[in-house]
Design goal:
The protein is mostly helical and 80 residues long. Helices cover 48% and strands 8% of the residues. The two termini are 23 Å apart.
């Protein structure tokens, strides 16, 4: 996950004005009915496989921090 964020999500969202991936695609936002967690050291293929195979029937939109939070945001002052 860390590599995908660094090499794919961050550059693309930086060029789009430092927004989150989710808001870049859906500027008005979407109502979420599912929360997805992940480990930063988790492999992206493992993550996708787990999400695809455990998605609850009827769920439409999910919150996942790597996609919902602006990854180019400097949060050092918030966690120091």
């Amino acid at each position: 996950i860390r590599t995908v964020v660094a090499q794919f999500i961050k550059p693309i969202t930086a060029a789009a004005g430092n927004v989150s991936w989710a808001l870049m695609l859906h500027p008005d936002g979407l109502p979420c009915d599912l929360f997805i967690t992940h480990a930063w050291a988790e492999g992206i293929f493992e993550f996708i496989d787990k999400v695809a195979n455990s998605w609850p029937a009827g769920s439409k939109h999910a919150y996942c921090c790597m996609l919902s939070n602006p990854q180019n945001l400097d949060v050092s002052s918030l966690i120091a």
